[in-house]
Amino acid sequence: MTDPSEQTPLRSRVKTRKTTVEDASDSDDHKHVATSTATASSAKDQAKAASSSSKSPSSSNTESSDKVTGKDKIPRRQQQQQRKSHSQFKSIAISLLIASLGVLLKSGYEKFLFPGRDIAIQQTVGIQGNCYQTAFIPGPADIEISDKEEIAFVSSDDRSWKKTSRFFHRPSMKTLTNGGIYTLSLNEKNSKPRQTDLKGYDADDFHPAGISLFGFRDDDTGAWTERVFVINHSHRGDSVEIFDYSAETNTLTFVKSVSSKLFVTPRDVVAVDKERFYLTNHNASQPALESKYGRVAEEIAGLALGSVVYYNGKETRKVLESLSNPYGIAISPDAKQIYVSSFLDKTVRVYNTTTAALPKVEGQEGEEDQGELIHDADIWVGNHVDNLSVDRHTGDIYVASHPSYSTYLRHKLGYEPQSPSHVVKIEKLSPENYIPQESSQPDYYFFPKPELPPIKWEVKDLFYSNGEDISASSVAAFWKNDLILGSTSSHHLLRCSLSLEH
Predict the structure, then answer these.
(1) Fewest CB atoms less than 10 Å from the CB: which of 180, 220, 340, 462?
(2) CB–CB of 358/335 below 8 Å?
């Protein structure tokens, strides 16, 4: 038994130790006391925790789970951000891989299977000296000729690129400056282009691309009207704007705006009548390729995912699919054929129209007005074809093309100062001048030699340039022995006199 008198000094020493801990300094003795006191207090806390857990285990589990959830909130957000960035990086890497494979396959395809067409440059040398630059406007992408008014309608928008660093490029300030539709008098050699006034239309977000004309006589007034169809790449979405032109005031009066989910980066439009039209979709509408990386991969890899859409005055529908980068579209003077340029296939595809392209009959509805197109022939041009222009008098097709795809793509992105331009004319032969074809396949007993259809078209070279006078021509229109060229990357038109016979 210990003497009670000896316990009193011990309690007093414990009290002095506690007060020493509260007023502890940095001495070694005080550190030792603090450690022992903290150990003792932690032991007491553990005992209390054990007793409380034995009394109410469910409450302790709930509190601990709440604490864990609160602690894991920040890491979970970080994990979500990491997963999102990882998925973006993965999509970019896949797009670049597809593009690289496409470039390799395409280069091998062109080099070993179908080499580029030999351009008859000797036929175009004399034309070079008869050309001059005119109409200094930014990015003239498309040209339509009005024989009635003897003027040219030109869609203009700044589509150039400028270099901001060694490796990366960005578009110019086209988002801040709207484009416009210009008219150019064709009777004067150096006439200045005049920008049309848009009446009844908010031109705050107007970026025109492909255009088309349709002339008709008004039923009420009997006056001749030029209706202009314009593809507009606005920030709200792609649409087709329809205007009526007044030559007296040089104005375009707004008629109608057509938009649809089937319009996916539309490139060109051709009017069938004053309401109906066809347009080409340059890219695909698949959700996997809707991002900018997917569309770049689609274009470089040469995926055949383009389409042609028909608008019958009330609704839109796809009439052609699985096209390889369809750029231009045009219609024959008799409205019986539609021409579509396939950029990567280097061909112009010919389709026969149904009753949809013929003059509209009152009360015509349903299946008769579906705009169906029936494939007729493929005209191999040998270059990457762009926009098309049809001479309304002869029916000849004038094709702007690009001899080198790699140079054109680098020029489009700003890495090359210029890119070659090439224009060909596709003449439609009369039946007595059809060129017969004979298959080179040998005639076997079980496999007779196939019969090939005669050639109904003839391709002739008209113009070639290395890009000094006009770079990467996107359109070539013909008017009275003159060839008028435009380019999305140039800031002028080029007008040439075709004094030579071809």
Answers:
(1) 220
(2) yes
Longest dimension (CA), the chain: 139
The whole-angstrom separation of Cα 88 and Cα 117 is: 40
Tokens of 328: 């231009």
Higher pLDDT: 18 or 229? It is 229
C-alpha atoms less than 13 angstroms from C-alpha of 340 in its C-beta half-sphere: 32
Q: Which residue has the higher pLDDT, 268 or 93?
A: 268
d(CA 215, CA 149): 11
Annotated binding-site residue? 268: yes
Does 250 carry a binding-site annotation?
no
Token pair, residue 63, equals: 């509190």
Give me the domains of the chain, ranges plus CATH numbers: 4-55 (no CATH), 124-497 (2.120.10.30)
- 285 phi-psi bin (left φ>0, alpha ψ -120 to 50, beta other): alpha
Residue closest to 354 by CA, chosen among 364, 341, 368: 368
| CA distances, 302 to each of 23, 98, 103, 264, 294 (Å) | 80, 10, 8, 17, 12
Four-point Cα dihedral 395, 330, 113, 407, nearest 10: 110
| Cα 332 from Cα 6, distance rounded (Å) | 122
Q: What is the DSSP letter of 193?
A: P
pTM over 0.90: no
CB–CB of 347/385 below 8 Å? yes
**Do strands 337-342 and 326-331 pair parallel, antiparallel, or not at all (unpaired)?**
antiparallel
Helix (H, G, I), strand (E, B) or coil at 43: helix
The one-letter amino acid at 64: S
Cα(29)–Cα(25) distance, rounded to whole angstroms? 9
State which amino acid sits at residue 59: S
Determine the residue type at 242: I
386 is in an annotated binding site: yes
Tokens of 450: 């196939």
What are the residues facing 156 on neighbouring strands?
Answer: 140, 180
CA 91 – CA 104 distance, rounded (Å)? 20
Q: Is 387 marked as a binding-site residue?
A: yes
The phi, psi pair for 305, rounded to 5°, reads -125, 10
3-state secondary structure of 71: helix
pLDDT tens for 359-383 read 555 555 445 578 999 999 999 999 9
Q: Residue 111 gets which letter from DSSP?
A: I
- Model pLDDT for residues 117-170, shown as the tens digit of each residue: 554 444 444 455 589 999 999 999 999 999 999 999 999 998 765 555 444 444
